[in-house]
Amino acid sequence: MMRRRQHHEDEQSKAFYELSAIVLNLLRSPPTPLNFSDHQTGPPIRRLPPPQISPAGFASLLLGISVALMLCGSVTFFIGFVLMPWVLGLIMILYVAGIVTTISDLGRSILCYVTAAPEPPPKDIP
User: In the 3-class helix/strand/coil scheme, how is 29-45 assigned residue by residue?
Assistant: First the structure.
């Protein structure tokens, strides 16, 4: 069981490595020489055109990118699915804390009003 899982993970990592190598080779452009107007180094160098990708290679590239995005999406979904009970629990705890605080404030205001000493009558100024 463990060997099968490890073999499967090795295949996945190999596929990701190959996919990233293809993408980087496609995105990599040849370095362009910098030409300064006051500095000529000799005859111009003839540049070779960049290699073209075949339609089958391009389709394989798009297929690999879509598979990688699907795998990343499923991993993200799994992480969210695992963390959702924790988030809901934290929300419930905060709601209970808010309710307890509100009841405490109401009780304190009622008790302080009842136990407060009556105000003395105003003094008459002659």
Answer: CCCCCCCECCECCCCCC
Collect all residues with Cβ–Cβ distance below 8 Å to 26 and sequence separation of at least 6.
53, 61
List alpha helices for the chain, DSSP H: 2-27, 55-115
**Radius of gyration for the chain, computed over Cα atoms and rounded to the nearest angstrom:** 36
- What are the tokens at 1? 């069981």
Residue 91 structure tokens: 């929300």
Rounded CA gap, 62 and 126, in Å? 98
Tokens of 104: 């405490």
Contacts of 45 (CB under 8 A, 6+ apart): 33
User: 89 or 41, which is more confident?
Assistant: 89
Per residue in 37-86, pLDDT (tens digit) is 665 555 666 666 667 778 888 888 889 888 888 988 888 899 999 999 99
Could you tell me which residues are beta bridge partners of residue 39?
Answer: 36
